Amino acid sequence: MTQSASDPMGPQLTVSVPERDAVQDAVEPAQAFAAAAGLAGPLAAGPLAPELEPHLSLAVAPAEEEDVLAEVWRTSSRLESMQWELDTAQESLRQAVRKASAAGVADHELCAAANLTQDELTTVLVAAAPVTLEL
Fold it and tell me: What is the pLDDT of residue 83?
């Protein structure tokens, strides 16, 4: 079945709708295509994906560009928060190591517990030592 529509201000539009039997015959190939398309996701993660990315990025619509930029802002903010948490955790570890050292825990035990090398342990302990200046 074919229908035509026209608008005095624009071009004529013609739409063809296939008969019911033709639609039924197209269902099976469409289902096979959908199954094949389901493989496209895992295959796209392969080595060709990085090569295609520059070309795909050029096709980003302006509205999508704002979404992509918002994602960059969110990710940057999350990274900054994680860096702050890491800095806080490292300082807590340094303080705990200094406290354990002052309590007499052996250096080799501190290294194992804090996952530090002897040089790193020395750096942590020296940084805590008070500096005395002789004039």
Answer: 96
